[in-house]
């Protein structure tokens, strides 16, 4: 089979592909995802990170209660137990961004000695909680929260980063990640062969709408994303299993919706946000398609009860769709296995 072909997964037979699929993925990055923030914003956001740590076990409890399978993309650096151990996993080539403020290595002075002293950079205890819950897949969010489309970095830098992520995940969690979530959704199609060589079977791609694929992040793009999150202006953004594109041996399991955190300023729009997500889930369930929802644990860090309540509303609806349409919850890795 041509590895650049669009695969018809319906002929594989290893798992029932004749049902809709509910996929959840989470970007688990702690402070490594915001190291480029200015100091004022960084300090302000620390409470979100701590709150995200608090809500993670509660998210896992909900996943367990509703039999949800999910993919957790972990930044490899947070799996180290101390700073000396962290340095042992550093790659030979660090990302040569033109803007070095983007590099996690440029901010190592912020990293404390271990998780008890620095809960913003260490998260092995939380990773161990995740792997104890059935149906949870440990994926990779790269080793250093690597940006694939930034000026200055190279294919070799990316390859070395993935090698470090693989090694620390194997050593600390005794598993090999096969699903990749790229930081800030910076998909670089020229790097798919590197992902495949590193053993990845899937990555989370972008919805097709221009505001998601645009390299720009201006006010117009953000405005359309906001409108889509609350009102679904680009439709359900679901897709059939047999339309998943597999290029260079890696499946593009595209995102459908970002679960925006609860906002006190926009609380009057919460019902519209949930309705938009439900419409996407219903479309997937009725038409045997995939609906892929994603967020970060730290998105639940503030307004924790409201965010967890929203999640439970979504999972209750999944339970209803599962009963009525045999809607299935699968991780990215399990979807890749189908194809």
Fold topology:
Layout: E1 21-28, H1 39-65, E2 70-74, H2 83-88, H3 124-131, E3 136-140, H4 155-173, E4 179-180, H5 192-197, E5 202-203, H6 210-213, H7 219-231, E6 239-240, E7 246-247, E8 250-252, E9 257-258, H8 270-286, E10 289-295, H9 304-325, E11 328-329, H10 332-338
Parallel strand pairs: 1-2, 1-10, 1-11, 2-3, 4-5, 5-8, 9-10
Antiparallel strand pairs: 6-10, 7-8
Helix pairs in contact: 1-9, 7-8, 8-9
How would you explain this protein's 3D organization?
- 38% of the residues lie in helices and 12% in strands.
- It has 339 residues and is α/β, with parallel strands linked by helices.
- The strands form two sheets. Strands 1, 2, 3, 6, 9, 10 and 11 form a seven-stranded mixed β-sheet that branches.
- Strand 4, helix 5 and strand 5 form a beta-alpha-beta unit.
- Helix 8 (270-286) packs parallel to helix 9 (304-325).
- It contains ten helices and eleven strands.
- The chain has helices at 39-65, 83-88, 124-131, 155-173, 192-197, 210-213, 219-231, 270-286, 304-325, 332-338; strands at 21-28, 70-74, 136-140, 179-180, 202-203, 239-240, 246-247, 250-252, 257-258, 289-295, 328-329.
Name some characteristics of this structure.
339 residues; alpha/beta; four-stranded mixed β-sheet; disordered N terminus
N→C terminal distance? 12 Å
Discrete helix count = 10
Number of strands: 11
| Helix-residue proportion | 25-40%
The secondary-structure element order is EHEHHEHEHEHHEEEEHEHEH
Strand percentage lies at: 5-15%
Query: What summary fits the major beta sheet?
Result: 7 strands, mixed
Instruction: Provide the gyration radius in Å.
Output: 19 Å
Low-confidence regions: 1-16
Structural class: alpha/beta
**Averaged pLDDT:** 94
What characteristic shape results from the CA principal axes?
globular
């Amino acid at each position: 089979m041509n590895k650049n072909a669009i695969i018809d997964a319906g002929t594989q037979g290893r798992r029932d592909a004749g049902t809709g699929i509910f996929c959840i993925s989470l970007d688990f990055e702690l402070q490594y995802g915001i190291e480029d923030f200015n100091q004022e914003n960084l300090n302000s956001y620390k409470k979100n990170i701590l709150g995200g740590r608090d809500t993670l076990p509660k998210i896992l409890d909900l996943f367990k209660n509703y039999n949800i399978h999910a993919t957790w993309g972990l930044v490899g650096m947070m799996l180290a137990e101390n700073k000396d151990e962290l340095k042992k996993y550093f790659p030979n080539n660090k990302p040569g961004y033109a803007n070095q403020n983007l590099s996690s290595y440029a901010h190592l002075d912020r990293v404390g000695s271990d998780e008890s002293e620095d809960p913003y950079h260490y998260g092995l205890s939380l990773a161990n909680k995740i792997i104890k819950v059935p149906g949870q897949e440990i994926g990779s969010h790269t080793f250093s929260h690597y940006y694939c489309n930034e000026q200055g970095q190279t294919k070799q830098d990316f390859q070395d980063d993935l090698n470090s992520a693989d090694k620390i995940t194997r050593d600390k969690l005794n598993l090999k990640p096969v699903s990749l979530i790229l930081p800030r959704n910076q998909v670089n199609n020229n790097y798919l062969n590197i992902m495949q060589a590193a053993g990845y079977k899937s990555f989370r791609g972008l919805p097709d709408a221009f505001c998601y694929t645009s390299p720009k992040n201006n006010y117009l793009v953000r405005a359309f994303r906001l409108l889509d999150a609350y009102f679904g202006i680009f439709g359900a953004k679901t897709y059939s299993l047999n339309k998943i594109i597999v290029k260079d041996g890696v499946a593009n399991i595209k995102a459908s919706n970002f679960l925006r955190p609860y906002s006190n300023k926009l609380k009057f729009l919460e019902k519209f946000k949930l309705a938009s997500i439900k419409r996407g889930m219903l479309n997937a369930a009725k038409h045997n398609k995939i609906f892929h929802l994603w967020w970060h644990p730290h998105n639940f860090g503030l307004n924790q009860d409201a965010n967890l309540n929203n999640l439970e509303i979504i999972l209750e609806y999944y339970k209803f769709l599962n009963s009525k349409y045999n809607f299935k919850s699968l991780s990215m890795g399990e979807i890749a296995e189908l194809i």
